């Protein structure tokens, strides 16, 4: 785990505890760059992910979308040789501040991965409560927490009678919704989703898109997707990432989804959203 | 290939439902009753041929040769027959299946014979008396016409249980922690630790005994504890390598998921990685026990052996089952060799019981039982708990 502090921008606001909350948070990334070893993969990304909005990160494979997403909850630094620069703040607090613990940051900024990854040795209920357990957060009414999270993730009706079944016994789509419930049980301010539907069938995809719509009033969602229709359906804002040959990924254009799909400024955006290339 | 004819009794087929014509069902590559009969008849033919060739034509003799010739003839007949009946593709498939089965039989036969031999020599001597008495006051060599009491192995069971038990207490946590270090923590040193652990697994068992003799026994005299130390040295690499292999196959996705939920690394290891690898770790531990429980060499210089029960692991010489077998066989009289076989059988059964309980402990059934018990316990704890979390 190496994180070069030398490359970090100066003038970082003083660190203070991130305000945990039941409400959505605003994330601001400024001048974010990322390296794997000596290779620069992401250059100067500045993006605001507004409170209660769903931001979609679109673009061809290998343009740094997932890397950017992982920088937003400090998962990037868990990879050997990964470095970064720039500032990322949640509700005005720098999440890379020296006072911030990575594990604390991740508690407030949840993540759902490309492949469903429920804990196989835990039951459905234990999976949902795992985040609370990992953070030593005691709750008086765990059953209610389980129900609430599963309802939000749109899984409650399917599993209410088998909460003691193992997480791995569910179908792929259900497992992914279980992972969403697991992330939501911690009441994060922001939920990052890295192509959450790419391993799922259309019906499950639909369910998850509904779920995203349902939760966006209480959590800020940032979603990476390769599916243009999906980006159009679920997001309020879009950011288009693109990397030239042997060049790092950059944000070409960002704005309201309607404008990005209807009347983009950049011809490359128009080509991409219309399926002309990439 | 056998195809089961379709029985059209309603209610027996979920997919038929009494509509349309009955389907001819088949299972490609199925090995059905016809094939079993065929294989049996082929074997019979092979035995007959081998008998003619072996006993009538060439006047060779010997059980092993006969078996080898039978096996070879069987494979030949079996291939030709299947080629005639099913064609070339199916015949080569069956041939390879037969080769694999014969290889299995070749390996299993000595194992089964060995266990059978142990039972044959030891089973009739096994009694409650043997299990509960020691060798105390029993002359090692019984002069003819003199009445001798029968010796038992209780003292050795106690010794083995204590020594191996304590060796596990030392070696299993250390082994699992080493594996966690190698696979979860890593770093520059990990490579060298792995090299040393691998080298340790090739360590002659007696060297472990001599090592403990020179650093411990010379100062503090013989004891079961010294034996435990030597056994722990042997247990460590087996448990470490076994555990490391199963930790490797725990998907990295799960570690990421756990980290993304805000779990510190120790939490991820304790709550996600180790539970996921539980049954594999248990197998590694079982293998470690199996390796150590039958060891004689490391005990030669450490426990010294005894004819009486010594419950104290930390003071004075102690008996042990493998040690007792070695000593009794060395004396080479009928009564001592009988006792050695009894001890060997007891040791075998002990290992069997340990493995069985390990399997039960590791079974998903007990796993879920323990889980629900833990759930109930934490539920009780929760009731008494006030809401402290400000989520």
Descriptive overview:
The complex is a heterodimer of chains A (278) and B (391). Chain A is α/β, with parallel strands linked by helices and 278 residues long. Chain A has helices at 65-72, 102-108, 124-134, 142-152, 156-159, 172-184, 202-215, 228-234, 257-262, 267-273; strands at residues 27-36, 39-49, 54-58, 82-90, 93-94, 109-112, 190-194, 220-224, 237-243, 249-256. Chain A has a single domain, classed as Rossmann fold. Chain A has a 6-stranded mixed beta sheet with strand order 6-7-8-3-9-10, with helices on both faces. In chain A, a hairpin with a 2-residue loop joins strand 4 and strand 5 (93-94). In chain A, 51% of the residues are buried. Chain B has 15 helices and no strands. Chain B folds into 2 domains: 33-121, no CATH class; 154-370, MetI-like (MetI-like fold), CATH 1.10.3720.10. The radius of gyration of chain B is 29 Å and the shape is globular. The N and C termini of chain B lie far apart (65 Å). The chains are: A alpha/beta (278), B mainly alpha (391). The A-B interface holds A 20, 22, 73, 75, 78, 103-107, 110-111, 113, 115, 117-123, 126, 130-135, 137-142, 164, 179, 182-183, 186-187 and B 251, 253-254, 256-264, 267-268, 271-272, 275-276, 278, 368, 371-372, 375, 382, 385-391.
